[in-house]
Amino acid sequence: MAETRTVLVVSNHGDIVGGGEVSLLALLGGLDRSRWAPMVVLPCEGAVAEGCRALGLPTHVIPLPGLRCPGPGMLRSAAALRRLARSTGACLLHANGSRAMAYAGLAGRLTRRPVIWHVRVADRGGLLDRLLARLARAVIVNSKAVGRRLDWAPPSKVRCIYNGVDFGRFSPRRPPPTLRASLGLPEDAPVVGSVGRFVPYKGYAHLLEAARLVEAAVPGVHWVLVGDGELRGELEEQRRRLGLEGQIHFPGWREDVPDLLALCNLFVLPSLGEHFGRVLIEAMAMARAVVATDAGGVPEIVLHDETGLLVPPAQPKALAEAVLALLEDPGRAARLAAAGRRRAETEFSLSRHVEAVEALYRELLGADRGGV
What we know:
Blueprint lengths: L4 E7 L7 H12 L5 E7 L4 H8 L4 E3 L10 H17 L3 E5 L1 H14 L3 E5 L7 H9 L2 E4 L2 H4 L10 E3 L18 H4 L8 E5 L8 H14 L4 E5 L5 H10 L6 E5 L4 H7 L2 E4 L8 H8 L3 E5 L4 H4 L7 E3 L4 H12 L2 H18 L2 H20 L3
Parallel strand pairs: 1-2, 1-4, 2-3, 4-5, 5-6, 6-7, 8-9, 8-11, 9-10, 11-12, 12-13
Helix pairs in contact: 3-4, 8-13, 11-14
């Protein structure tokens, strides 16, 4: 039988601050426990720690001080991580994010364990990126758009592994019978949904302008915008100015995202530049028609006029026209939705994602120890 090997997973955040932590939890839950024994290190308690412990994973809290002002705390934390790697017999370290990679990279060098740097955002880090890449044996990027952040690195070192969705959780279904009324939605009203953080690059101000144009053309469409963030107050004020308080709904963060997607006629992602766009594959897995902006990693997920519609970012008129095109042609929307579901199954399954990560684990360990 294959030996079960400990993997020390170090993550930037103890709380869920975006799709990166959701994807990490999905990966940890999907790893083959007969071969891999993940152990998690987080900088603080929070929802990620709770999720890891719910999966039955040993979870440790080691502070990871910020990198801008190095001090004695950084050395203490790196030493603690080194001791943990040695005492647990970890065969490799998997760093989820740049701050985590700085500490895991140091611990990996001190213990002579290979380290994987999992990069999920496209924003370049300058000299820090080059240092972290040198400390890493391999780098995982979650889209080709993110991979361009490291376009100077040896291609053999950077692997594009798309995030995956659990089709047990995200699959076509009818919404709960009471959900529509609980959100204040009329019985027969068309519903457009979106899920994301209310921060500038997500483009929700443009989405509200598009909602105004849709309302002028086809009155009675309702919009359910799931999420929260620093711009929520501004968006609620914009909704008031547009006279759409009865049409645009802000239910906050919700745990029942699959049910909310099942309620929607179509899904919209208005981002100005998405690193990957995990919510898109969730919507596609639910067989929802998709309208999204042609920016960042989005066109790697949504194929224009095949699995959804792509529009230029920051153009409310184009966004409104795409939404209207699908609302007014349900047959076309259904065809795109079915094709999106097929693409999600083929390219973005959780099993495919996990298998690719496990293959990289085996590759690195095989190179170090003559095979697994």
